């Protein structure tokens, strides 16, 4: 039975069991679930078909119902786990069907019996679903799930501890909301102690899970600083590298790589890794894992290496490890077509990366893209150094044909998934070729032209109804546009180096189909795409046939579409804020809920009983916006159909041209057959002439050998003559140099003698000035002594006069009659007293000025003495230098 028939039977069984939960319906559903589980379910959900999604929606609803039997729930969960085989399917199960909260509710219902197989099965499926997926704290039953995990991690049940640790590691990684919730719990310290005890566990998987949880919760706290300090971090590095290299199973290796990637996000730990003495050896062993054919292991190794490239101190070390070992064998490998990557060369790190670029292993597309990104980072670092080593150049010499082979070997894309892989591959290959631009020699303009043509075809064959909005990174048109612009940028850089590249580049810029990818790049949210689009627009604007008006209209349409999507998203948020009611309480907005809602809106009866008119108007506005969006998409689809009709007519013309060219080719083939027969006859005639020419060539070879021997003797004589000539020139240069030095020393000696004479004269003049200043100083001291004696005399006179004045005043009091007679005498005495006071003040002023002059003269005298000492030392130094120079001159002359 094929998959479609099985899914229809499964959907019918789900509906029957939902309508009547009888034992017969349950057995029938159980049988259908097991039958579908036995079929191949790879990428069933990501294919976009409606029937699988309807079945999954019904199965998730039944699994979350507590009334469903455990046996049936276990079978359903097994089928859902099998469907979650790739990243896209896991994303659909999480986002569209909310499977995480459903499984958490099943665990919550059976939390009292944690050891049941159903609980363990739910934990294992949850660990698979939540790997590299962020679970929001608002998810239903997430708090109960975290409490269940913490309780069972601290239990003694070994069977449940490992899946609980793995699931807790997934929930805590890069999830700040879950981390904050766990840290706010009361028993978090006890939980930390339990985790630290697990570090001594026998199972390496348990140790890695524990380290991952501790790194997520405590890396920036005191507990984490103690756990991952400078003393312990090197042991942690050794443990993680050992588990990556020698770990049992892919799961342990995946979590070990994730742990090391998380630790590298901490600057201190990244700095410790740059100083880790065994880093090169560990990375070499990790690169050895690329020899295996397991894409999962290779993908995690490449992810780890890309994370190391984000640390500036590790990029150069990685370049040494990747390029240095392969250096001796790269040139030999580059000269071979297929055998160059065989045998012992497979053990080299660089060649292992090249193998994953075009690996035939299933599921290796992501590994190929990661290898391209890693080589891009490493070659950017290696070529950005001051000097590029020979091994790097040899590696690039081998890599260029492989990259060009990737561009030539890409098959025409079929379907959206193939188009996306095709465009991602072209983008990364073109980016890598841009980094090694100066070393690209065999690149052809026809190769780039064919890639641009295929990408333009992909862009215009992309249906707008199956695409994401233009602002989305996953938009197929965005991916095609990025690949196309990268290829055009490569053509722009190579247009001066490759023949016919400039003509092809400007012809593509004038193609009408370039408008769509260029408008998407110019209206993109990514800076690099906008810059690339602007550079191409700058080149295309002066061209006569460039559709600038169409480009403006396309950019305006993109902006209007983005604005309309923003308005619709705002209205969707407004509708989501409406309180829930029974009509809108269906899971993931399935088609059945939409049809029932439309019927109830048309009837207008049940809706009016349960919600207000405002809610109805908001819902009607949302559906009006959706209808308008579908109308615009329908108009775009009509335009696409018109374009397809035009393309069909062009294809008919091309078929007619092809038939005509085929007839011409057949006629030319007949002519070429006749020419081939004539060439065979001429070849037989020329064969005889060739034998005679061979004899002449042998004689000329003998003559040539004699001439070569004579030429070798002449060459040897010429080399001896050149050596003697070089020795003579070196001796002549040495003689000229010594003569020039002698002249320079003589001129220096003459100048020094002149300076000595001038210094001696200055010294004598300074001595005379010193003697004069000493005599002047003695005279000033004598004057100061005389002034002091006069001042003392005046003071004694003043004291005597004051005594007489007191006596006279007493006489005035006693004799009033004699006062009148003595007033004149008193006035005279007062005048004389004022004169003496004035004289005393003048004398004191002169004495202070003389003392000031004395201090100034003393300081000047000290300065002159210091200068004299300096000059005397300079004279002594000049004498010593002049005597030394004279001795050296004498030696030179000798």
From TrEMBL:
Coiled-coil blocks: 648-874
Q: Which InterPro entries does the record associate with it?
A: ARM-like, ARM-type_fold, CIP2A, CIP2A_N
Q: Which keywords appear in this protein's UniProt record, sorted alphabetically?
A: Coiled coil
Domain of life of the organism encoding this protein: Eukaryota
Q: Is Coiled coil among the key words of this record?
A: yes
Q: Where is the CIP2A N-terminal domain?
A: 23-567
Question: What is the protein's name according to its record?
Answer: CIP2A N-terminal domain-containing protein
Q: Which organism is it from?
A: Perca flavescens
């Amino acid at each position: 039975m094929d998959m479609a028939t099985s899914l229809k039977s499964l959907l019918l069984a789900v509906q029957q069991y939902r309508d009547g939960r009888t034992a017969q319906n349950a057995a029938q559903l159980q049988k259908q679930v097991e039958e579908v589980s036995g079929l191949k379910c790879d990428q069933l959900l990501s294919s976009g078909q409606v029937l699988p999604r309807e079945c999954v929606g019904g199965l998730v609803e039944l699994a979350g119902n507590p009334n469903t039997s455990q046996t049936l729930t276990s079978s359903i969960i097994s089928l859902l786990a099998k469907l979650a085989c790739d990243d896209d399917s896991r994303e659909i199960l999480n986002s569209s069907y909310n499977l995480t909260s459903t499984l958490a509710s099943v665990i919550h219902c059976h939390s009292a019996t944690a050891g049941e197989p159903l609980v363990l099965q739910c934990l294992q499926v949850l660990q698979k679903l939540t790997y590299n997926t962020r679970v929001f704290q608002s998810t239903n039953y997430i708090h109960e799930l975290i409490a269940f995990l913490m309780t069972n991690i601290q239990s003694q049940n070994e069977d449940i501890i490992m899946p609980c640790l793995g699931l807790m590691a997934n929930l805590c990684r890069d999830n700040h909301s879950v981390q904050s919730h766990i840290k706010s719990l009361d028993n978090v310290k006890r939980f930390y102690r339990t985790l630290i005890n697990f570090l001594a566990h026998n199972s390496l998987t348990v140790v890695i899970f524990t380290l991952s949880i501790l790194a997520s919760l405590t890396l920036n706290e005191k507990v984490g600083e103690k756990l991952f300090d400078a003393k312990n971090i090197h042991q942690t590095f050794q443990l993680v590298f050992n588990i990556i290299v020698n770990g049992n199973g892919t799961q342990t290796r995946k979590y070990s790589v994730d742990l090391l990637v998380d630790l590298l996000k901490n600057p201190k730990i990244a700095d410790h890794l740059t100083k880790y003495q065994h880093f090169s050896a560990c990375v070499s062993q990790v690169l050895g894992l690329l020899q295996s054919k397991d894409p999962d292991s290779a993908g995690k190794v490449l992810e780890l290496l890309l994370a190391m490239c984000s640390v500036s101190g590790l990029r150069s070390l990685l370049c040494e490890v990747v390029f240095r070992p392969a250096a001796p064998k790269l040139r030999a490998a580059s000269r071979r077509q297929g055998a160059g990557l065989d045998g012992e060369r497979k053990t080299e790190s660089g060649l292992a990366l090249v193998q994953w670029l075009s690996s035939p292993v299933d599921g290796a597309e992501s590994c190929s893209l990661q290898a391209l990104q890693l080589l891009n980072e490493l070659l950017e670092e290696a070529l950005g150094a001051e000097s590029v080593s020979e091994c790097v150049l040899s590696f690039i010499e081998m890599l260029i044909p492989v990259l060009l082979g990737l561009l030539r070997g890409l098959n025409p894309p079929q379907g959206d998934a193939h188009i996306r892989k095709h465009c991602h591959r072209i983008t990364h290959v073109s980016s890598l070729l841009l980094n090694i631009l100066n070393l690209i020699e065999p690149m052809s303009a026809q190769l780039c032209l064919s890639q641009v043509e295929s990408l333009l075809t992909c862009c215009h064959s992309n249906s707008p109804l199956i695409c994401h909005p233009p602002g989305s990174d996953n938009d197929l048109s965005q991916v095609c546009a990025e690949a196309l612009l990268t290829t055009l940028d490569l053509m722009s850089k190579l247009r001066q180096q490759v023949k016919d590249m400039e003509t092809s580049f400007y012809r593509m810029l004038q193609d009408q189909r370039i408008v769509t990818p260029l408008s998407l790049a110019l209206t993109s949210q990514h800076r690099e795409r906008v810059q690339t689009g602007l550079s191409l627009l700058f080149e295309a604007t002066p061209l006569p046939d460039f559709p600038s008006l169409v480009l403006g209209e396309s950019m305006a349409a993109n902006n209007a579409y983005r604005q309309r999507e923003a308005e619709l998203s705002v209205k969707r948020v407004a509708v989501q804020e409406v309180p829930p009611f029974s009509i809108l309480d269906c899971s993931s907005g399935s088609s059945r809920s939409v049809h029932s809602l439309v019927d109830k809106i048309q009837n207008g009866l049940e809706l009016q009983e349960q919600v207000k008119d405002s809610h109805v108007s908001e819902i009607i506005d949302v559906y009006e916006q959706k209808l308008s969006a579908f109308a615009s998409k329908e108009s775009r689809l009509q335009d696409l159909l018109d374009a397809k009709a035009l393309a069909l007519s062009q294809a008919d013309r091309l078929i007619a041209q092809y038939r005509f060219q085929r007839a011409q080719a057949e006629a030319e083939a007949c002519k070429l057959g006749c020419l081939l027969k004539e060439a065979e006859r001429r070849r037989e005639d020329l064969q005889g002439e060739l034998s005679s020419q061979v004899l002449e060539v042998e004689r000329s070879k003998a003559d040539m050998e004699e001439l070569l021997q004579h030429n070798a003797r002449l060459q040897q004589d010429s080399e001896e003559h050149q050596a003697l000539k070089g020795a003579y020139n070196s001796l002549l240069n040495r003689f000229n140099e010594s003569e020039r030095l002698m002249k320079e020393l003589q001129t220096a000696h003459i100048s020094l003698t002149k300076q000595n004479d001038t210094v001696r004269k200055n010294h004598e003049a300074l001595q005379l000035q010193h003697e004069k200043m000493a005599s002047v100083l003695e005279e000033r001291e004598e004057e100061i002594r005389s002034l002091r004696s006069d001042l003392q005399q005046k003071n004694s006179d003043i004291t005597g006069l004051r005594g007489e004045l007191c006596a006279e005043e007493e006489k005035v009091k006693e004799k009033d009659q004699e006062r009148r007679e003595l007033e004149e005498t008193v006035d005279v005495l007062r005048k004389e007293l004022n004169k003496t006071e004035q004289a005393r003040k003048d004398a004191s002023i002169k004495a202070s000025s003389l003392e000031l002059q004395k201090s100034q003269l003393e300081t000047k005298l000290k300065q002159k003495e210091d200068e004299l000492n300096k000059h005397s030392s300079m004279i002594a130094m000049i004498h010593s230098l002049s005597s030394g120079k004279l001795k050296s001159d004498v030696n030179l002359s000798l």
